[in-house]
Amino acid sequence: MHPQEVLDKLHETPLVKLLPREMRGPFVGQLLDRAQHETYAAGATVFKRGEAETDMGVIFLEGMVRVTLTDGQQRYLEAPEILGEVQLFTPNAHRSATVECVVGGAVLEFGWHDLGTAIRNTFTPEQLETLRDCIKHSAKTREQNMLDAPPPSTSS
Fold first, then answer.
1. CATH 2.60.120.10 fits 3-145, yes or no
2. 21 with 67: CB under 8 angstroms?
3. What is the number of other CB atoms lying within 10 angstroms of the CB of residue 134?
């Protein structure tokens, strides 16, 4: 992906859209400074439910993932989407779901703690609270908006 396409996709993620306009550019800039470009193939496991001691976040710029919840239900998410933040808010920082690629594509990987350190030096305490609220709201909204099945044009 070209740099402008990556930037456009980041600004399309629900989390970034929730941020106040003045926070979007600095947040995206800090993300880009810390992220590694990768490509995930269909079938790749991104997270396993129960994983601990990891703070990896993933931004899917392209593709689709299947999320297997603790009760075994499977749901689907299409890019662009930021994943991996839920474990920041769970006891013992364990992954709450298994995430696997259904349709692969470009992703950015980053460490939430590394990003958090940089952001604490970028934003005011009030802005940090706004960011925390946006992260929580984004995760909750994502859960409500997951697809029950992949679109018919997608093979799983």
1. yes
2. no
3. 19
Q: What single letter denotes the amino acid at residue 132?
A: R
pTM of the model: 0.86
- How confident is the prediction along the chain (156 residues), in pLDDT tens digits per residue? 899 999 999 999 999 999 999 999 999 999 999 999 999 999 999 988 888 777 889 999 999 999 998 888 899 999 999 988 765 665 566 777 899 999 999 999 999 889 989 999 999 999 999 999 999 999 889 888 888 888 776 654
**In the structure encoding, which two tokens stand for residue 48, read together?**
């396993």
- CA–CA separation, 133 and 36 (whole Å): 26
- Domain locations along the chain: 3-145
